[in-house]
Amino acid sequence: MAYSKVYKDAKAALDGVLRDGMTIMAGGFGLCGIPENLILALRDSGVRNLTVISNNAGVDDFGLGLLLKTRQIRKMVSSYVGENKEFERQYLSGELELEFNPQGTLAERIRAGGAGIYGFYTKTGAGTLVAEGKEQRVVDGETYILETGLTADLAIVKAWRGDTEGNLVYRKTARNFNPMMATAGRVTVAEVEELVEAGTLDPDHIHTPGIFVQRIVQGTNYVKPIEQRTVRKRAEA
User: Fold this and answer.
1) Which of 31, 58, 148, 160 is the most buried if burial means most Cβ atoms within 10 Å?
2) Long-range pairs for 58-65: beta carbons < 8 A, 24 or more residues apart
3) What is the C-alpha to C-alpha distance for residues 49 and 27, in angstroms, rounded to an integer?
4) Per-residue model confidence as pLDDT tens digits over 159-213
5) Is the backbone of residue 32 left (phi > 0), alpha (psi -120 to 50) or beta?
6) 198 DSSP assignment
């Protein structure tokens, strides 16, 4: 029987992959494009002492914030923590380790890891706390710091459409962090809003080739909350 990448649900897609103390990359930007189903399955699995690489940690009651609430995360490698009070509380009380990164640096560290690049030199963070403990080099009078690539035991990503071979297409802001994380996980599990047969997607529109994806699942019951809801006041009648 031919090997299938398709799993019946998020729990099944993570079966046999999870273990305590592992490093997990989680795609998305804010609450946009996050793997909602896979995060819930992670919570329900009870796996602990996780190092999670993600741009942010969701909010208090959604996204990765759910894993903070259950104390399943030991360390976050992130660039933004401003919307999560539990994240702030755990970090300031010493309960949670945090490796803070400028946002562009975090994205490039993940891309480098997925491309097999050990590290790169950047001016971002030179002369600040970000540079502490890192190799520095002066080139043409400018100071650069060495940032190393990032990889993970598991990458969980969310796409708009995917096919049974694992080819993925993202929509708009959901394309942030998901494509490069898909390349940087030793195992990559994708959840999609629409799962189609191989050959359905236009090859020119595929963002993540299926060679990077080992498992795929059709997501369900998406909430897609708005992180910061702002509306204009209605004009007076």
Assistant:
1) 58
2) 58/31, 58/34, 58/83, 58/84, 59/31, 59/83, 59/84, 59/225, 59/227, 60/84, 60/85, 60/86, 62/31, 62/223, 62/225, 63/28, 63/31, 63/34, 63/36, 63/39, 64/26, 64/34, 64/39
3) 19
4) 999 999 999 999 999 999 999 999 999 999 999 999 999 999 999 999 999 999 9
5) beta
6) T
Q: d(Cα 60, Cα 113) in Å, to the nearest integer?
A: 29
Number of helical H runs and strand E runs in the chain:
6, 12
φ, ψ for residue 216 (rounded to 5)?
Answer: -145, 145
pTM as predicted: 0.93
Domain ranges for the chain, please list them. Answer: 19-100+151-218
Contact 67, 43 (CB under 8 A): yes
Tokens found for residue 140 = 């043409």
Which residues are registered as beta bridge partners of 52? Answer: 24, 76
Show the tokens assigned to 37.
Answer: 């189903």
Place of tokens 């103390």: 21
The H or E element containing residue 163 is: strand 152-163
- Enter the tokens of residue 133: 């403990």
Cα gap 28→36, rounded to integer Å: 10
Digit-coded pLDDT (tens) for 102-117: 999 999 999 999 999 9
